[in-house]
Amino acid sequence: MKRKPVIAIDGPAGSGKSTIAKLAASSLGLHYIDTGAMYRAVTLKALREGTDRKNEAALTGLAARTVIRFEYGERFTVLLDGEDVTEKIRLPEVSKASSDIADSRGVREALVKKQQEMGAAGGVIMDGRDIGSVVFPDAEVKIYLDASVEERARRRFIELAEKGIKTSLPQVKQDIEERDSRDMNRPFGALVKVKDSVAVDTTGLDIAQVAERITGIIKEKL
Ligand code: DC
After folding, report:
1. Is 156 in the pocket of ligand 1 (CB under 6 A)?
2. Which CATH number does the domain 1-30+123-222 belong to among 3.40.50.2300, 3.40.1190.10, 3.40.190.10, 3.40.50.300?
3. 136 lines ligand 1 (CB under 6 A)
């Protein structure tokens, strides 16, 4: 039986992928799969267990014995081995350490496999860095969401401030630039704009405008 469509949304940190993917998923009746949350959950576990972030065997083992699930109730919930970690995985120290964890080949292989299983029946919007290139190269719709680094830093800064996390705009911008470089240069699963993706630059657009554009692209493609 033919699977339902898979929508891949890739792009750098702070491009608005998760906000937009969530909105599009609810308006189109699709499941939202946040692959960044999966890397973040493994990162949180590694931080808690004090796993050496350069120890490939330890990281591979850790990913293999980790169960990540999503719940779609009143709010989107991320469960790490049954524990609700939705908020904890957004802490700046987790964001920072996640680049190391995402470099691990063993972690990537384990998470890519889980993501492929989660999306096997289709009917999903999956956001990340390597969805259109590695996880679902045959996705029916591929979108590459981007925005200037200044705009992405500004958005992330506001988001953190709203959560009561104190930082500064230059610091957030520097963190984003570092993550961009790590995301674009990792040996496997690097962020790339694949040829068959539609690029959307969200600089200067508000959430409603981007959501409208994305749902329009998805409807047109399907
Ligand atoms: O999108 P995000 O900021 O929640 O992603 C968290 C980390 O995981 C970030 O370091 C990039 C990495 N990541 C990845 O390597 N591949 C994905 N498909 C999704 C996220």
Report:
1. no
2. 3.40.50.300
3. no
